[in-house]
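ARCHIVE CARD
CATEGORY: sequence design from structure
SOURCE FIELD: tokenized fold
FIELD CONTENT:
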């Protein structure tokens, strides 16, 4: 009896030691994984942030520093004159205003069109609704600049090259597929009972769309507005190809026009690039959490 008890106690002690050892191994592995993950994330953050820091330092340097032995280091003197030159000699203020105008109109028009299309294909029952939706979503698969030459010829024939319209029209076209994709996902989260009750009460389709559906799509509209803004603000190839007059250039193409034929103030160009980057940074700082929440809510509930 005693021998049996001792044997069982010995087995229990052995099992306890094994469990304790395995627990230590698990904790050790978890700590190693956490440290490795943090290291990778910190390294990734440095890789992403360093070009921005370098650009800011670049904008405060003289040409002699940029092309000398101080390409990476801190500027010897903060050249605020570069920002003055960018605004007054480089017309950055005008280019910034043009970008703001083009982006704002693109956001408004594409948002309205995307909401109308999404509601029509998701809520209204008609024969080719799915086909129309697939045609719009096909735009996600096409490279943006595949239509560069056809659009150039069309705009030239309609005499709208070097105008705001030459940028607004393609920006609207290329922002619609993503906007429709997001809005159709959000429409799945809205119960159709709300609209049916409104129809029973005598509301027309337009009233239901404007007074019931649109307020419920507010978060989704904010999300697609951010995506559309980033597309219109950062786009370069269309702006460079379709616009030749300085008075209509956006900031991405306008910065390039600051390159002189014989002498170029590269510090002023860096200042212009910092000014061009600032709105997107502000959008990320203040609106990134909104985008993440909206996309997550739409994807889960859909």
């Amino acid at each position: 009896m005693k021998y049996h008890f001792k044997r069982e106690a010995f087995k229990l002690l052995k099992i306890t030691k094994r469990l304790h050892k395995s627990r230590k191994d698990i904790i050790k592995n978890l700590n190693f994984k956490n440290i490795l993950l943090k290291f990778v994330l910190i390294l990734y953050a440095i890789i992403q942030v360093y070009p921005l820091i370098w650009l800011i330092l670049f904008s405060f340097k003289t040409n002699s520093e940029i092309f000398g032995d101080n390409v990476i280091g801190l500027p010897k003197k903060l050249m605020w004159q570069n920002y003055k030159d960018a605004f007054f000699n480089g017309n950055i203020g005008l280019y910034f205003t043009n970008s703001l105008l083009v982006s704002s109109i693109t956001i408004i028009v594409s948002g309205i069109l995307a909401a109308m299309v999404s509601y029509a294909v998701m809520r209204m029952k008609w024969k080719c609704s799915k086909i129309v939706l697939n045609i719009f979503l096909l735009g996600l698969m096409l490279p943006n600049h595949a239509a560069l030459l056809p659009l150039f010829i069309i705009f030239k024939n309609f005499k709208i090259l070097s105008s705001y319209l030459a940028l607004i029209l393609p920006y609207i076209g290329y922002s619609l597929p993503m906007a429709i994709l997001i809005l159709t996902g959000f429409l799945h989260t809205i119960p159709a009972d709300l609209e049916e009750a409104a129809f029973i009460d005598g509301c027309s389709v337009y009233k239901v769309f404007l007074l019931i559906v649109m307020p419920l799509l507010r978060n989704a509209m904010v999300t697609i507005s951010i995506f559309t803004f980033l597309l219109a603000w950062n786009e370069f190839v269309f702006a460079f190809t379709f616009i030749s007059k300085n008075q209509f250039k956006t900031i991405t193409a306008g910065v390039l026009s600051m390159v002189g034929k014989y002498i170029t103030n590269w510090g002023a160009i860096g200042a212009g690039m910092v000014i061009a980057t600032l709105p997107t940074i502000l959008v990320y700082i203040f609106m990134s959490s909104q985008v993440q929440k909206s996309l997550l809510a739409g994807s889960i509930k859909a």
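CARD ANNOTATION: The chain has 13 helices and no strands. Residues 2-58 form the longest helix (57 residues).
SHELF: design records, drawer C
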